[in-house]
Amino acid sequence: MNAIEQGLAKGRDRQAENASENAVISSAPSQPLPAQALDEGKRTDRWLLARLLASLGSPPIELAVRDGAHVATGTPIARVTFDSRATLLWVLRDVPLRFGDAYSDGAVTIEGDLVALLEVVNEAGRRAGGERGRLTQRVSRALRRRHVNTLSGSRDNIHHHYDIGNAFYELWLGPTMAYTCAYYPHPAATLDEAQVAKMDHVCRKLRLKPGESVVEAGCGWGMLAMHMARHYGVRVRAFNISHEQILWARERAQREGLSAQVEYVEDDYRNISGRYDAFISVGMLEHVGVKNYTTLGGVVQRCLGGRGRGLIHSIGRNSPALLHPWTERRIFPGAHPPALSEMARIFEPWDLSILDIENLRLHYAQTLRHWLALYESASERVRSMFDEKFVRMWRLYLCGSVASFTTGSLQLFQVLFAPGASNDVPWTRAHQYTT
C-alpha cells in the first residue's frame, strides 16, 4: 500500500468513526429542535471549543463549529471551523494527530494565513510548555507506535515519502531538485541561487580538492554529488535507498556527462565500504534514528580511516523531543530531528572531533517559503496527480514546517568534523566564505 492509499484508508476509518458518532447525535426525531435544546447544544460546543483553545495555550485565534458556537482569544489572526460537533469530539481525543487528519479530509477549514496560525499555536504551546510538555512527550513515547529504522524498516519509511513520484517533487523543488535547506548569502536570493550556494558552502567547509574521493550518505536526487564532481573535480560515490531518486540521478548524470565521476549506489548507508578523503551527509540523519547513530559513526570512522574530514547537515532541535506525531505518521515515518546532545553519539564513541557547528534555522524557513509558493502555484497539477486530500495534507506539512523553523521548534545544524588525531584542520573559518 503506497502513501496515498494509506492516507485514504485512514480517512475512511475517520469517516466511519464520524458516521457512528453522527448516528448517536442524530438519533432524535427529525422535527425541529426546541430553542432550549439548540441553546444547550451551543453551550456544549462552546465548552468543547474552549477546552481545545485552552489545551493549545490560548493563542489569538477563533475556533468555531459550523453554524454553531465559537470562542476566541484576544484579536484572532485566523478562524478554524469544524464541520460538526462529531468532528470536534473526534479531534479532541487526539489533537496532535487528528487535527491534521481532519484538515486533510476537509472537515476542518481555516480562514486566514495558515503559516501565521501555526506560528501563534507554536508560540502559545512554548509558553504553556513546562511539565505539561514533558508529560505529553512521555505519553507520546509510551502510546505511539514508532516506525523503526532497521534495514527493511528504513527502506519502507523512505519509500513512503520519496517514492511517490519524481514528477511531483519536480513541481516545487526547482531545477536543483535539492530537498534540503538552502543557504541564502543575502535575503533576496532566489531559491535556485540559494541551493547552489548551499552546495558551495558545504564543499568549501570540506575543503575539497581535485582528485579527492568523497562518499555521500543519502544523496537525494544526486545534484550535490554532480556539483562536487563538476566544480571541485572530485570522485563521488553516493548512496541512497530510494529507487526513484537513484534512477533520476543516474539518468541526469549520464545526460550531463558525469557518469565517470559520480557513482550512484542503491544501498543503505550501513553497507558503505572503501576509504575516502571526505564523508558528507546532507538531509539523511533525520531518517537514521538515534539508536543507529553509533553505527553511523562507525561507518564514518571506517570510511575516513583516521584522516580526512566529514560534514553532516541535519534538521535538529535544541533539546531531545519527538517529531510532531501527525508529521511522523502521515509524512515522514521513522523521522527524528536530533538534538546536538544526541548527535554526539555519532562522534564520541569513535574519537571524531567536532570542528565547527553552524545553525541555519532561518535559512530553512526561507527555503520552505519558496517551496510553499511553488507548491501552491502547482496545486491544480498536484490535485490531478493525486486528490484534494493530498493537496491539503502536503500544504499543512509545508506550512507547519515553516512555522516550526520561524518559532524555533526546529533547527538546522551543519556539523563539520575530523578524526581526533588528524592535524589537517583549518586555522580559521576564512575558507568557508571565500570563492
Description:
- With 435 residues, the protein is α/β, with parallel strands linked by helices.
- The protein contains 17 helices and eleven strands.
- The chain has helices at 3-25, 35-55, 85-92, 95-105, 114-128, 130-143, 151-162, 166-170, 191-206, 223-232, 243-255, 293-304, 325-331, 340-347, 361-377, 379-385, 388-406; strands at 62-65, 70-72, 78-82, 108-112, 213-217, 235-240, 262-266, 278-282, 309-316, 352-359, 411-419.
- A seven-stranded mixed β-sheet has the order 7-6-5-8-9-11-10, with helices on both faces. It has a four-stranded mixed β-sheet with strand order 2-1-3-4.
- Helix 10 (223-232) links the parallel strand 5 (213-217) and strand 6.
- Helix 15 (361-377) runs antiparallel to helix 17 (388-406).
- It is elongated.
- The two termini are 48 Å apart.
- 43% of the residues are buried.
Provide the spatial order of strands within the biggest beta sheet. Answer: 7-6-5-8-9-11-10
Average residue pLDDT: 88
Report how far apart the termini are. 48 Å
Q: Could you spell the SSE succession in H and E letters?
A: HHEEEHHEHHHHHEHEHEEHEHHEHHHE
Coarse morphology: elongated
| Beta-strand content bin | 5-15%
Structural class by SSE content: alpha/beta
Number of separate helices:
17
Which regions have little confidence, pLDDT < 50, spanning 5+ residues? Answer: 1-12, 14-30, 131-144
User: Main sheet?
Assistant: 7 strands, mixed
Assign a percent range to the helix content: 40-55%
- Radius of gyration of CA atoms, rounded to a whole number: 24 Å
